[in-house]
């Protein structure tokens, strides 16, 4: 059994997609980040960076003590290796998946995340910041659209953890100021993943991105965006 510490954000939904696709036995443990549950001492022992998702695998390969993990990219790779699914076994195929997984965790996620922060959450509009991140998100969409011009999925002909990592960060394309009609290859890929039964299950009950988030309370804003090192000591 795997405990998945989860909230319905793009990074949380990456792992929900894997669980639904793989059928791995798991238990969802909600972590309400708006209430500060990610700073609870027990959770910090699992996720010292006080972010979601995180997991504890109580039945690791080969037995032994439970394995706890934080960082969504590391978790996807761990689960792919545990199950032998959604990552190729050959050197070249594996390299293709890994580079696009890291492209998401190092590029698309942080840039689109800053896009959403300044466009939706910031208490004051900063035109330079909004323009900066909308343009960079647009550039990254262009990279992905070009990549998908001659292949069904990001790393080739097979659905992989790279697709699972990227898809939840494309879902908020409207609040991120993007139009999928400008990216036909990306749109084709997006619609195909959206229609997968596992994706439908993963997104059941998940609120639309940023719904009602522009008027969050000052306390919630402080919890989400105002923490310093003191919160994790």
UniProtKB/TrEMBL annotation:
Gene3D superfamilies noted in UniProt: 1.20.1050.10, Glutaredoxin
Ranges of residues in domain GST C-terminal: 90-210
Superkingdom field: Bacteria
Start and end residues of each GST N-terminal domain: 1-87
Pfam families (UniProt xref): GST_C (PF00043), GST_N_2 (PF13409)
PANTHER family listed in its UniProt record: DISULFIDE-BOND OXIDOREDUCTASE YFCG, GLUTATHIONE S-TRANSFERASE-RELATED
Name assigned to this protein: Glutathione binding-like protein
Protein's organism: Lysobacter yangpyeongensis
């Amino acid at each position: 059994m795997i405990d998945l510490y989860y909230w319905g954000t793009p990074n949380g939904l990456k792992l929900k997609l894997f669980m639904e696709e793989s059928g791995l036995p798991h238990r969802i443990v909600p972590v309400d980040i708006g209430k500060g549950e990610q700073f609870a001492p027990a959770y910090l022992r699992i996720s010292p960076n006080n972010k979601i998702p995180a997991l504890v695998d109580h039945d690791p390969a080969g037995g032994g003590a439970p394995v706890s993990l934080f960082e969504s990219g590391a978790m996807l790779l761990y689960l792919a290796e545990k199950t032998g699914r959604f990552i190729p076994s050959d050197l070249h195929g594996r390299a293709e998946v890994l580079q696009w997984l890291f492209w998401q965790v190092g590029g698309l996620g942080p840039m689109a995340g800053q896009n959403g922060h300044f466009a939706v959450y910031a208490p004051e509009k900063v035109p330079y910041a909004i323009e900066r991140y909308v343009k960079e998100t647009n550039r990254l969409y262009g990279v992905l659209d070009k990549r998908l011009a001659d292949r069904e999925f990001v790393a080739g002909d097979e659905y992989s953890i790279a697709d699972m990592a990227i898809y939840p960060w494309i879902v908020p394309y409207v609040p991120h100021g993007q139009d999928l009609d400008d990216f036909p290859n990306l749109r084709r890929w997006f619609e195909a993943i959206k229609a997968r039964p596992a994706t439908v299950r993963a997104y059941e009950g998940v609120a639309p991105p940023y719904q009602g988030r522009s008027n969050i309370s000052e306390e919630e804003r402080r919890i989400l965006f105002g923490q310093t090192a003191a919160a994790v000591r």
